[in-house]
């Protein structure tokens, strides 16, 4: 089965295959399934860019997209996620993309659903296609990961981007720096060394900013937006200390003038909108892998258990 | 005009034609309209499976689906259902599928709308495509309806499934048993004989469970879920008394361990997910009938009345 | 760039070109883009007919439509409209249609977004495709605009239809009459002469009724719906005084028996549902113009500014 739940489950070889495939798509590469493919996108949390990006990737691959409105769904009637996905499987959907507020929601589906599931974000857990698009953007810039310094800056503790990226970047040979207010340090994440923001910005080839998940977070610290920006954000002043050829990433949506000075969002160093473009290509690669795997595996699944 | 409002309005011949057509689709049968077809699905009540099932059927037939979001529609501005459907007709939609909370909402549309309307559920009234998928699933299992005993179990009074199915099954030659708590008996439905649940389960070839519409219903009777399950549900113990070759149906979404023991949902006797699969085929048959009827009838409709 | 924000920005020549193109589409005219086109419809306010009409136009042109749900979007997370549209641009959307509650929301996008934007209604501002469909309906009836008298009746002050139409009709050579309760007169709109409703109805070739935006408006004046209808609406009695060959328009949704007697909505003089049909054709013309302009212009846009 070619689910995609987390990058941690993928080998370096598999990750590089996905990035190579995405790179081919970015250059106009073409692929079509040998039979009609039906997919559904189950977004139980708001998202513009991730959902639209998957929708675009699906259409570029010629898939049929079955609309699924979480607000109008039977989940409102108390149906479990498992029964919802089994329903979609029964009516002929060939793959599902899921975003859900529960960490590791996919564990309840992993061994029982017979169509590929692509994780588009689980709670404070993982967001593998976001990590892949970050990796693709970095690789396009520097050609490789070994020897690079990547600074991940902001709310490390609550970020699925920080969790996914720090592990995989370390595995790929990059050095990871973390920088965050004391309150947002994450002792459970061993893949980065904490430094102050000025050091992080000055030493990094890649300055990867995180979104403040909830603006009230800053307020809880007793900081105004301006104060947060000054102490922990990428200000114009800090940006001038960045290394030659270094780049800025942000998973977006951006809180302008909080995590990053507004005028830097579309500056020469920024790859923020490039990341969004790359998101479509990595999702095409992930969807292609899912559908090809399904076709190769056939109906391998064990028969249902007989009760009684 | 080839509306589909209720099965009661269809002859046995018409019902069998629809089932035959659905059976053909289930075996990979192919049909395409001779010109582009545009449809819209107007769901004013939540539903995962019915809406997704229609969406799938429409795409398998190559139709274009115009998204309609009831929450964002002008119905919020007080527009009548008639004016909404007339609008869709005016912009070129060729057929509409409607689910609405009002019983027999379609009476206001029957003689004035010139495109086919397919009822996907009206209040506590009818749900003809659900009945058709139940019939198809039974026919696939037993080859015919005459001589079968079908037990319909649960909230008979508030169920559009019970209403639609009891009438048509009786007409097709099956014997219908009802079983329900005293509060949910339906004196207005003459097509079944009430028996206790143990008798119903033991005598039936088809055990058709109904969904408890609102969980508070059980609470109103002063019963916990566990007590309801024990008294009126398909428990593991009762399932062991089922006849050889008998099957379990449920329109879903299922309240696991209320109407039915959770482990029975995907047991060997269960056809619950088979029903969902069949739902796509019967909807393809109903949509094909609607569009073919429209094309055959042409613009037969009377000119608008001249006022003044 | 071939944005469409307001008709005021278009020359008479451009307007006539759009109407000619729409007329061709109404007669079955065909056009397909030379490469795949992806569009998104961003509706931040409820609308059945405008959104469905664009969706239909897009599919008739063979475009791929990327679903965008304003309620589920990152706008809820405080993202600016600019960043949302830039995101869609980045993922490969080729044109966007926007309805937004803010007057002239497009000024923040005009010089910075590099894909065409089509205004589907801005606050109390403009609604250019509604004006175009009104113009097409009038031109189909009378062949030209010069010499016609058009009466616009109702809530002149809050209507983007009144604003757009009065200006362009005057420019095209028609005479515009306004009729409205004292409270709803609009001193800022110089393109019409106020007359009482009986005069307006009796002198007009085109009786263009406006929707009462909020039913409470009538209540604020201390009028029941019946009283409003009697004093300011198109009653059956007034309709009998209309000129030979004159027609009735309404942008819909209609408040039946408020702005207009219910039985007049589908009477011989009414072109209300014809307007809706024409809406699809003018939107096809506007979308074609947008995509052709984009292709002709190429990537003309200035490079982003380098900060630092």
Explain what this protein looks like in three dimensions:
Three copies of one chain form a homotrimer. Helices cover 37% and strands 13% of the residues of chain A. Chain A contains ten helices and nine strands. Chain A has helices spanning 12-26, 49-60, 81-90, 128-142, 160-171, 197-203, 215-220, 225-232, 236-239, 272-297; strands at residues 38-43, 64-66, 95-100, 117-122, 149-153, 175-179, 193-194, 206-209, 247-249. In chain A, helix 2 (49-60) links the parallel strand 1 (38-43) and strand 2 (64-66). In chain A, helix 2 (49-60) crosses helix 10 (272-297). Chains in contact: A-B, A-C, B-C. The A-B interface holds A 36, 38, 40, 64, 66-69, 71-80, 83-84, 86-93, 304-308 and B 43, 46-49, 51-53, 55-56, 59-60, 65, 67, 69-71, 215, 236, 239-240, 252-256, 263-264, 266-269, 273-274, 276-277, 279-280.
Greatest chain-chain contact: A-B, 33 and 38 residues
Largest sheet of chain A: 5 strands, parallel
Termini Cα gap of chain A: 29 Å
Radius of gyration of chain A: 20 Å
Mean pLDDT of chain A: 91
Fraction in beta strands of chain A: 5-15%
Please mark out the parts of chain A with pLDDT under 50 across 5 or more consecutive residues, or reply none. Answer: 297-308
Derived structural class of chain A: alpha/beta
CATH fold call of the largest domain in chain A? Rossmann fold
The oligomeric state of the chains shown is homotrimer
Number of helices of chain A: 10
Q: Provide the helix percentage of chain A.
A: 25-40%
CATH architecture of the largest domain in chain A: 3-Layer(aba) Sandwich
- How many beta strands in the DSSP annotation of chain A? 9
Level-1 CATH class name of the largest domain in chain A: Alpha Beta
| CATH superfamily heading of the largest domain in chain A | Aspartate/ornithine carbamoyltransferase
